[in-house]
């Protein structure tokens, strides 16, 4: 158990819908990272937050957004969902020495 | 651009034997960290081992060890006494320690099967 929690574990929805994925980092970790794992693209960095502020952006679509709250949990919002958004979404938090610890992931299926 | 290459899409090994997974990377950074993550069928991403580029000594964690060749930009993972529970996808990853980019860059992964 990494100490990073993600909910829900599975999400099934339809095209055009909007969903919210939630992540709680390890106790004491201020940085949260979101990654997308799909069959064709592999593991891709989406976005990073540090203590409530956006720190870095990767290949995140405009239909996707994220935020980190004062209690340090983070939410990833995916809207106008397309079939191609089906993937495993991971949250990670950073401990010492640049080591990122991953949550169990949320498997999103868009039908 | 920073890239990580894992040239072996699939490998297999007999239980109790030793196997080595290859990884090469490309970066102009001088200071960085390298990681191996394991993703079993449960899909959880589990940290296996970490190497700091400024340390010449190769990292070791129980049955897992690395061969870090900085000049060659090579970072292979050796698994000794392979166990059935080692069956998983293994991802090599890289992160610079400077320059502001804190994202992990992953290779495509190597699927390892341990046979009884």
What would you say about this model in short?
The complex is a heterodimer of chains A (111) and B (116). Chain A is mainly beta. Chain A has no helices and 11 strands.
Overall radius of gyration of chain B: 14 Å
- Write down the oligomeric state: heterodimer
**What percentage of residues of chain B falls in helices of 4 or more residues?**
under 10%
What percentage of residues of chain A falls in helices of 4 or more residues?
under 10%
Largest sheet of chain A: 7 strands, mixed
**Rg of chain A from C-alpha positions?**
13 Å
Report the sheet-strand fraction of chain B. over 45%
> Could you tell me the strand content of chain A as a percent range?
over 45%
Question: How far is the first residue's CA from the last residue's CA of chain B?
Answer: 41 Å
Summed over residues and divided by their number, the pLDDT of chain B gives a mean of 93
Helix- and strand-based class of chain B? mainly beta
Average pLDDT across residues of chain A? 93
Largest interface: A-B, 24 and 23 residues
Order of helices and strands of chain A: EEEEEEEEEEE
Instruction: Report the uncertain regions of chain A.
Output: none
- The number of helical segments of chain B is 0
């Amino acid at each position: 158990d990494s100490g990073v929690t993600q909910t829900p574990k599975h999400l099934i929805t339809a095209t055009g819908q909007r969903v919210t994925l939630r992540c709680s980092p390890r106790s004491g970790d201020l940085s949260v990272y979101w990654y997308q794992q799909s069959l064709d693209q592999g593991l891709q960095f989406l976005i990073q937050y540090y203590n409530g502020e956006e720190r870095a952006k990767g290949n995140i679509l405009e239909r996707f957004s994220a935020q980190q709250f004062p209690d340090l949990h983070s939410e990833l919002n995916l809207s106008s969902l397309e079939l191609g958004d089906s993937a495993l979404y991971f949250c990670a938090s950073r401990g010492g020495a640049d080591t990122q610890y991953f949550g169990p992931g949320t498997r999103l299926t868009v039908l | 651009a920073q890239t990580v290459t894992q040239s072996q899409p699939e490998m297999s090994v007999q239980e109790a034997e030793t196997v080595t997974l290859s990884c090469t990377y490309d970066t102009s950074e001088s200071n960085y960290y390298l990681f191996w993550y394991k993703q079993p069928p449960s899909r959880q991403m589990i940290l296996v081992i970490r190497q700091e580029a400024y340390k010449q000594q190769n990292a070791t964690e129980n049955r897992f060890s690395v061969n870090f060749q900085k000049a060659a930009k090579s970072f292979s993972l050796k698994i000794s006494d392979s166990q059935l529970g080692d069956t998983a996808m293994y991802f090599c990853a890289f992160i610079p320690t400077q320059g502001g980019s804190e994202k992990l860059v992953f290779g495509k992964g190597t699927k390892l099967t341990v046979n009884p």
